[in-house]
Amino acid sequence: MVECAQHPNADKLRVTKVNVGGDRLLDIVCGAPNCRQGLRVAVATIGAVLPGDFKIKAAKLRGEPSEGMLCSFSELGISDDHNGIIELPADAPIGTDIREYLKLDDNTIEISVTPNRADCLGIIGVARDVAVLNQLPLVEPEIVPVGATIDDTLPIAVEAQMVRPHGCLPALSWPCCKRH
Q1: pLDDT tens digit string along 102-150?
Q2: How many domains does the chain have?
Q3: Which residue intervals define the domain TRNA-binding in the entry (predicted)?
C-alpha cells in the first residue's frame, strides 16, 4: 500500500493507492481499521471472484473510485477472522497470487457421511472411498504412535464372590450347529 489517506466523505473509510505489480497504482477504498501506508496486503482486483460468488467490480464509494478490494482472511474464506485486512510480511512479493503465497491452492472435497457408513467416520475410510471413486492408489497417512505421558495407575479390585466372565456357546438349535 503506497498511500493511505482519510476518505473526504466518510469517517470510517480510507482512500488508498496500491501497487499490485502492474504499470500503475490502483485506487481502492477500504474500511478496515488496520489500513495504513506501507502494508503489504492481499488485493482482489476487478474481475476476481471471492467465496460466495462475490464478484469484484469497479465502483464509487462515497464519491471516490475503487478498483478492487483489500481482503481479510474471512473475505477469502480462509478463517472467520474479519478484524481487518491481511497484513503480509514486508518481504512478500508484490503481484503474487495470494493462494500461491499462502500455499492455499488446494483441492477440497466436501463429504456428508450417513450413519450407515461407519467406515467413513475416519480419514482412512474416507481416503479409501475417494481413492476407489477416482481410480487412484490409496496413500495412507503415516501415523506416528504417541507414547503415554501419564504414569498414574488406577487400582481395580473385584470384591464380588460370584463374578464370572461373560461367555457364549452356540446352541444346537442355531442353523450353523445343526447336525445332519
Answers
A1: 888 777 778 888 889 888 888 899 999 989 999 999 998 888 888 878 7
A2: 2
A3: 1-99
Among residues 93, 118, 23, 29, the alpha carbon closest in space to that of 128 is found at: 118
Shared domain for 71 and 119, answered yes or no, is no
